[in-house]
């Protein structure tokens, strides 16, 4: 049901000192139905937002506080931008009345042993797992609308699954032979201090990382397997690109039967017709991260391969928007009855 | 008077294939009171906007046409993003009923001989010059509200004058000894093909350019002289910085009398109190282009110099927003009775 | 035979105003056995080198002249950095006494119909084609030593073939199922003015390009097919990365028989043992373009895939050095009896 | 006296895990007269160099050890790339037989109270201070040749003093009114983990920092004052530029008497005639960091100001080469009788 009350929804942000938290605040500040009522960030508690993110220095928002100081029951919704592992502990303590949009990894994997293996700890809030809706908006709207807790997908899974799920589900491609060569801007690595993301280390250079071992691989496999109706492994090979924002996956797929690249394109076009944010690249445009920067768009293109029987599917998003905070707002809009585009209709920032 | 009709203003953009045109369209697409009714760009006439700017491929806008094909009388307002020299010729032909917000340099300089000297041609629309309001919003609101033609300042003058005009006018600094060391992102050089703005030439490097000969120098001098009540020369030394957006001026000023840097800061704080877009950097924050990227903010800081009797004033904007399209929208809002922040309230995009 | 005369080799550079020409001059200036005797660049004839490349302003070199003004017979060797198509025409006119190291694409493809198809013109110097040695140094030393004309490989083929040729030749991988996801810095696109390589277009963004249609694909296929003993198609998908230098290919291969990724690594380690420039990445280091920047090194790593029966081979070079001018000097050293590392022993420039 | 023995000089590097240490190793690896005999880096002791700097993974060098494990008496020369404060403590313990080229700040300031004020600790090796030669090569050759300990200047002072010292000494400019607007690549901030030098923070942005409070200010003032014969303050305002390497200072000077910008240019040209590394920019070339990247060059230009009686002097270097490791090698060459250009004759790396 549409939100017609005109009353603002009181939101809180946990993990307000990270990049996903910051981008959520950026979007919230211009959202017609949000009021920023609490910002929690334990290591920066007591500081005004301007101290932590000078670019948000003139947003109407309260100072940062410790999570335990927040009166959660006064809030309607909480966005969680904490690192995996810590998110579940706080979320488990929130009152039932608060709807939760989690941007962390904690409620994405349905299998707790897979979670434990990839995230290095037992899941401590398994009672919330089943009810958590996977927040890939375009593929799960009804569940998201009804959920109290939405687990927003990782950035890489968002770009990958939007491109591949319809193709796998329609059995247009062989789910057991999918290669995802992924490229991400450095903001995807977060704001924690690490040597490899210093400007002088990551600049003017391209580096693969976490080959065959990235945590987004099991998430992608979970959803691809579900669509395929069979457990599959997916090659997922990420690379760090010298840019702050943007993510692009180049997916190499084997065509099923006598299908062609054009069939894939047609299937995607049909699947996403009318979607406000997921778009097929028009003829003459190759999906590039520049063309979605700062926006909630996902841009997809399909191309024939030189190897007979293969095709190439390219998908690009802004990792912090459609890959995180933007999709979180999109889900919020569903959960609270706003226009799905409310607060996230900005066009990309180019150049 | 406020615009309360709810009717959208029909706008046209001339020079829609340049960066300022693109940023204007980006902002217009989300403006509550604009309808994009015409896009003119002679060299790309006939193409959909998506072909020229893929990032704007999903904006609701007509295809590009030649300027002579537009029925200007059907429009309410025209934004002009043409290069200097060509702008005046088209603007001179527009019907009186159309209000014009010019982002080119053609109506900024009041002295036609200065114009001819710096822009290499005689001014051909001198009858429009006198009525043209200089569009430095915070310093000329009444004239802008009343004007039919607004000449938006150059990007460098915007950053520089917002910082210095109040200090010069109050005689806090010596107007004859002002040094402006300016730094700009590469988008300031436009989209025309030039070797020095190729990625491999401008990347990973910093270059001064147009030393003592940049066209924004006479514009700065015109306004500083007016505020000072005397003709002065201003040192203006621009540098090209390996980033797309952003502009920062570091101004070195000699303090008048026994004034201090703190006096300057206080004067600016008072002058801009309540302004939605011009802000003094809070303690602990140095103005940096990152903190205003993609937004209409101008961020200013004042610092004591090691040399006694001197101070340093730093000012930063996004060259395409407050330095061009954003300020143009801000002026449009004044001219058509919208909230001054309508369509340009976005927070900066960081990281 | 080693060059023990101490006499310098007189070299000329054709196409001295492009990036490969510039990097050749950069290396030649410090080579112990080269004397730069002629620089040809038709569009810049008459200018000192400093005007065209200020960074080479203090190199001891003659001014640029038109190709027809050069007395080729006074030279011992000519490096050609012209664009494809024009290179063959000049090379065909050079006296027999001059050895030619061609960095263009004109003598790489042995099949003239393939050349005509991909380069849009008939080959006009087919009499030179057969004698032209393919200049992938580590795989063709004897032919290069003996050749009068060496066709240096493209940058992408160099990175790709160094990684894959030994694996294909030893039938460790399935030659008909090779996917090469390639990433290049912008200098690979040359110095000609094109909109997509402007700083503001290519910066802060990642773009695929020439999907399934890049001219390096047939070159890679020619050499892979030769090693495989069968004609194969190879997927080759390049991407433009916001950095000036550097190239990295991520190759996805299907293992033959019961071979493992470790087998591939062992085969490469054995093949390149003792090579001064081709190196296996030590444990703990992922090949990254930063680690070879400005040097003649090629760094290769092999990794197991999550998909059973597959492996990932990563290879990185500096596109202008090992991918062009550096390998050209390496071949020159072989042809003229110098130490193979002469003039190209510089360590990478990091950060 | 020239080094004609052919025997290699055994060198050690203290602080081998920082950027200046790495660049020293890079240059040493190709120096005709150096043998890398010891690498000390306490926090990385026990690791091979490849673990700390993969780009140097194939240099012939011993693994890193703790400083106390080195047998200093077996070495001929030690380069010190430690942070200020820690450098003096180790240098004080080195045997007299070892010549020391210090790239830290510890022996640059002659006045110990100034040192204590700016570096936050008392100087603990004042007995070495007097004998320490200030290593601005072109201005102090005789002292450097004779010294046991050379204190290489900071990167900013190098660029600034090479441009200004001759002008101040000849009284062509007013030493009490010098403004130095400085711009540096991010590598100047070192390899320690700090938030503001993360790629996503420093990228696509320009930030002033340490306004009126940078430690290179007193160093510049010390040398300018000495040349002027009077104590002066100098404005020194640094900015962080989104590039890894490169440094450029734009100096705003007041002309003394009736001198002109041309007089300054002539004085510099005369002063540096014949210098291998310090060059006046030829007509048509503006000094830019790109043109000296990776090289030991300093490129200087002089320009008339729009303000009568003022001039602009621009100077650029690679902060890690002429600004640190390269100048250190240049001084080493003087100290050990090598050609002054030995090991540092590389041309700049562009693009």
From TrEMBL, chains A, B, C, D:
GO terms for cellular component: cytoplasm. PROSITE patterns: ARGC. It catalyses: N-acetyl-L-glutamate 5-semialdehyde + phosphate + NADP(+) = N-acetyl-L-glutamyl 5-phosphate + NADPH + H(+). CDD domains: AGPR_1_C, AGPR_1_N. The active site is at 155. Its main location: cytoplasm. The keyword ATP-binding does not apply. Pathway: Amino-acid biosynthesis; L-arginine biosynthesis; N(2)-acetyl-L-ornithine from L-glutamate: step 3/4. Keywords: Amino-acid biosynthesis, Arginine biosynthesis, Cytoplasm, NADP, Oxidoreductase. This is N-acetyl-gamma-glutamyl-phosphate reductase. The gene is argC.
